[in-house]
Write a structure and sequence with these properties.
Strand order of the largest sheet: 5-4-3-6-7-10
Largest sheet: 6 strands, mixed
Number of strands: 10
CATH topology of the largest domain: Rossmann fold
Shape: globular
CATH class of the largest domain: Alpha Beta
CATH architecture of the largest domain: 3-Layer(aba) Sandwich
Radius of gyration: 20 Å
Number of helices: 11
Length: 312
Amino acid sequence: MAAIQADSLEAVRISVPALVSLNSAAAGLTLRPDRARAHLTGEYLSRFKGRGMEFAESRPYEPGDDARNLHWRVMARTGKPFTKLFREERERPVFVWVDLRNRMFFGTRGAYKAVVAARAAALVAWAAYRHGDRIGGVIFSDGVHHEIKPGRGKAAVLYLIRRIAEHPAWDEHGRAEADGRTACEAMIRLRRVVRPGSLVILLSDFANFDPVAETNLARLGRHSESMLMQIHDPIEAELPPPGSYRLSDGVDEFVLDAADARYRTEYAERFAAHRNHVRDLARRNRMSYLSCRTDQDPARALRQGLGARRAT
């Protein structure tokens, strides 16, 4: 579904220069918060551990060790519990999971959800570059998936930016047939390319996120630090003031009747249930959760969710 209207071209279609210009906005963004942070738009549910970790050796399990680090192969061989020990990697892989499905090309205020997701992905990429981390990701639409292996340096950021801005979804949205399994497939692809100890930022409205996708997300969370950034338009959460509204996707038009009080209540409750489900999904898998509206600055939202540091 497309948007009602937008104030400028950059609100409905992102460009490479626009994403490159976000380098300065990422200057105060840290990907290593040292404490949970409460904020206005969502709820930060877990701590990030810091840089990625690389397996070093194993030792007998001791009370208090993280059960997620049990070394099952050694345990199977010896019959005794062992835990893995890790050493800190010099560079941590950072992945962005960018949703460009048809539903993301909607926005009544600010910008399309897809544009907000693209901007957030670029901000994370520039922050990773500034911290010396590698950046990669999965960019997907209803018809095209791009897997980007993590690379280092400015060249890797620019490559990711181009793959986002030049993705066919910007031209084909509304024409490609929506596939309910798209998110599931993209999640499976992400889980296959993410290595243990990575930081993963998922940027989506999380619509049509079926149980198989949720299962793969849970598996992803066992070995990596993840954050779900749920992007939504204000009109998805609450209908506008009572009245009739003419909506258009650029081809067809229809009238929205927002006067019925019962329908308004049910409408708001459906969105609240969806948002709570995504937030609970994050909590169950010890992930962080962040909510961002299309009329909000994604840089500010990420600072509130990931933490900020003073630019040097």
